Amino acid sequence: MNQEVARTQHTPTEHAFTVLLSPTRRGARLARLLTTAHLGAWGLPSESAAHIVAELAANATVHGRVKGRDFQLALTVAGSTLRIEVTDTRGDSVPPGPGAVKPPEGDAEAGRGLLIVEALADHWGIVPGPVPRKTVWAEINLVR
């Protein structure tokens, strides 16, 4: 009998950065600036990641804000993948997931953030919990 054993190979984390930020416009701006600074220091491209972080952080400050509770930004590079995670404390306010995001009316001033994330990320999704949190994540392949 010929058996194949599937092995899961875990790529070690090469770079990681995590920070708690206030759920304000200033906190969202700082998330974008910190992303650009860290990716630059790591010698990685930052334009798409900065746009994704800007949208996810803005959503955390608008839709995920709970007074007195911060949101968390996490950047992780493993192999050729950059993973961006934004965690807020409104697990009860879950956005539509990948493929379910609908474009807003033509003259709407808001509602395009997750469409931008969907366009720029190779993969993205939402992880509920632990209560009361949720995490919206996006991954970018750094080798194109």
Write the layout of secondary structure elements.
Blueprint: E1 13-21, H1 25-41, H2 47-62, E2 71-78, E3 81-88, H3 113-120, E4 123-128, E5 134-141
Antiparallel strand pairs: 1-2, 2-3, 3-5, 4-5
Helix pairs in contact: 1-2, 2-3
- The H-and-E topology, N to C, reads as EHHEEHEE
The overall pLDDT average reads 87
Helix content: 25-40%
The profile of the biggest β sheet is: 5 strands, antiparallel
Q: What low-confidence regions span 5 or more consecutive residues with pLDDT below 50? A: 1-8
Strand arrangement in the largest pleated sheet: 1-2-3-5-4
Number of helical segments with 4 or more residues: 3
Distance between the termini: 40 Å
Q: What is the rounded Rg?
A: 16 Å
Pairing-aware structural class of the strands and helices?
A: alpha+beta
Overall 3D form: globular
**Approximately how much beta-strand content do the residues carry?**
25-35%
**Total E-strand runs:** 5
Describe the structure.
By secondary structure, the chain is of the alpha+beta class. 28% of the residues lie in helices and 27% in strands. It has three helices and five strands, in the order E-H-H-E-E-H-E-E. It has helices at residues 25-41, 47-62, 113-120; strands spanning 13-21, 71-78, 81-88, 123-128, 134-141. Strands 1-2-3-5-4 form a five-stranded antiparallel beta sheet, covered by helices on one side. Strand 2 and strand 3 (81-88) form a beta hairpin. The longest helix is centred in the N-terminal third of the chain and has 17 residues, at 25-41. It starts with 12 loop residues before the first strand and ends with a strand. The model is unreliable at 1-8 (pLDDT under 50).
